[in-house]
Design a protein that fits this description.
Elements: H1 7-17, E1 22-26, E2 29-32, H2 33-48, E3 58-60, H3 66-78, E4 82-83, H4 91-100, E5 105-107, E6 114-115, E7 133-138, E8 148-152, H5 153-167, E9 174-177, H6 186-196, E10 199-202, H7 211-220, E11 225-228, H8 230-243, E12 254-258, H9 264-273, E13 278-285, E14 289-296, E15 311-312, E16 317-321, E17 332-339, E18 357-358, E19 369-378, E20 384-389, E21 393-396, E22 399-402, H10 403-411, E23 416-426, E24 430-439, H11 447-455, E25 466-470
Parallel strand pairs: 1-10, 3-4, 3-5, 4-7, 9-10, 9-11, 11-12, 12-13, 24-25
Antiparallel strand pairs: 1-2, 5-6, 7-8, 13-14, 14-15, 16-17, 17-19, 18-19, 19-20, 21-22, 23-24
Helix pairs in contact: 1-6, 2-3, 5-6, 7-8, 8-9
């Protein structure tokens, strides 16, 4: 992959050559490149006033807004490493993250920096090369303290070059940013767009679950590139069908979905709503950035079953490792290992996860591979399909079940907006499955209908024992995915069978 100009150089070139061009759109108001640079310069004054060592990182605690973008921009332009966690984390978690990430200060938009108390006990910093690091993102924290993922700026720049060239991001082009600021998706939505002179249309996180707001925003603004999690498209399509069934978004040329399985019923409707758009399924992790891309055929969208994860991006290498620890050479099931030109060198604060960064299982090359924890299946034609998480494997009545596969089947129901499947120990079966389902408004979805849907697609052992149907959104992690650890079944006794609430 060819080297591309660094972000600092590329952004400053936009400020110099097109200072009055729109850089951001937020609540109907535009911020030009000159104005954004001036905001970043003002925010950068916070860094000057702190007693920071040459390589000392800072924390950034910010909800998405133009001021927050300017604050992150100030750190990047100053060459200062920064840790950008979700502001939705509990205060105790944030303090631990900043302290164990080596941050004595956390910057806040339009406010004085916060002093971070030292971590209890010795620092948990890992020996990870940070000489080229700018962004330090975090995982969701679903398996303990969130993992700090330092990303090399050279890798971010290489990814930016690929994304801009692949989706035509540049002056006069608008990219919708749906993800929160701490998401790795923003490397494309925000930072690639600003490096290449485009306009970022920011979705306020406070309105991100309002499908009618999303509809109005896309109808009002000429957006060319759109990347979001499948939930975005479900919310948007519901609003379109309820308010403007004939609505189309003709300016959109590229529609990307990532982060979760796209329901067939949602995918099938996208070509009509985005008549000019190419459709892509993108696979990646925070640790590796985007790794695979699959372009969906518009004519058969949503009618061919599960989508493959696609082909590797330029410079990406992968392996599928079977239960015997050997890389598969043909079809089969195994864990996906990935090596990309954009990946982290390792977690900064979790020594217990060092095993996830390793060499090729067969020693075929010297690159570092990341064990994704994702189970994939390669068919005889060479296409690779995501099956589920290796840590989501459970035994029910002696049958191996992957809860992610059960979730995928449930989300395919046209009246299901969100789903979470969890396990609970059962003395009789070993484990039993419980699920919470958020149904579409006015759908009339019930327990019997869902059970019939599952019975046609799953083995009997994989049909959840308990199905809880709700109308409100399911709880989310900091990365916007359904938080299975926060799902409760308060009115279901341990011995319940076939109950619905």
């Amino acid at each position: 992959m060819a080297e591309v100009p660094g972000f600092q150089e590329a952004f400053l070139a936009q400020v110099d050559t097109q200072p009055n061009a729109p850089a951001l759109l937020w609540h109907g108001e535009q911020t030009s490149y000159r104005e954004l640079y001036e905001m970043a310069s003002k925010a950068g004054a916070q860094l000057v006033g702190l007693d920071l060592g040459p390589d000392e990182p800072v924390g950034v605690l910010a909800k998405k807004s133009p001021s927050a973008v300017a604050l992150v921009l100030a750190c990047v332009l100053a060459g200062r490493r920064f840790l950008l966690p979700s502001p939705a984390f509990a205060e105790r978690t944030l303090t631990a993250l900043f302290a164990r990430g080596g941050c004595r200060y956390a910057l806040v938009p339009d406010a004085d920096p916060l002093s971070i108390p030292p971590a209890d006990g010795p620092p948990a910093l890992r020996v990870v090369d940070q000489t080229d690091v700018s962004f330090m993102l975090t995982t969701s924290g679903s398996t303990g303290l969130p993992k700090v993922v330092p990303l090399p700026q050279s890798g971010v720049d290489r990814f930016s070059g690929w994304a801009a060239d692949s989706f035509g991001i540049g002056p006069g082009r608008s990219v919708l940013n749906y993800a929160p600021l701490n998401f790795d998706l923003c490397l494309l939505d925000i930072w690639t767009t600003l490096a290449r002179g485009g306009r970022v249309v920011l979705v306020d996180p406070a309105l991100a679950a309002n499908g009618f707001h999303l509809l109005n925003l896309l109808a009002r603004e000429e957006v060319h590139v759109l990347q979001a999690v499948p939930m975005f498209y479900g919310l948007l399509l519901y609003a379109v069908m309820a308010k403007e069934p004939e609505r189309t978004f003709n300016s959109v040329e590229h529609v990307m979905f990532t982060g979760d399985a796209m329901p067939d019923c949602t995918l099938e409707q996208l070509p009509a709503v985005f008549p000019s758009a190419r459709l892509y399924n993108i696979y990646g992790c925070t640790e590796t950035n985007d790794s695979f891309i699959h372009e969906v055929e518009r004519e058969t969208a949503g009618t061919t079953g599960p989508l493959p994860i696609g082909t590797p991006l330029p410079g990406v290498s992968s392996a599928i490792v079977g239960a015997d620890g050997e890389a598969l050479t043909g079809s089969g099931l195994g864990e996906l290992y990935v090596s990309t030109p954009f990946q982290t060198g390792g977690y900064l604060n979790r020594a217990d996860q060092d095993h996830r960064f390793t060499g090729h299982p067969n020693g075929w090359d010297e690159r570092r591979y990341f064990r994704t924890g994702d189970l994939v299946r390669r068919d005889e034609s060479g296409q690779v399909f995501l099956v589920g998480r290796s840590d989501f494997q459970v035994k029910v009545r002696g049958v191996a079940i992957n809860t992610a596969e059960v979730e995928r089947v449930l989300i395919e129901h046209q009246d299901v907006l969100e789903v979470a499947v969890v396990t609970r120990h059962d003395d009789l079966t070993g484990s039993e499955l419980l699920c919470a389902v958020r149904r579409a408004p006015d759908s009339g979805l019930n327990n019997l209908g869902l059970r019939k849907h599952c019975a046609r697609r799953l083995p009997r052992a994989a049909i959840p024992t308990v199905i809880r149907i709700v109308d409100e959104p399911l709880p989310k992690t900091s990365t916007g995915k359904v938080d299975r650890n926060a799902i409760s079944f308060p009115d279901v006794s341990p011995n319940a069978r076939g109950r619905v609430s």
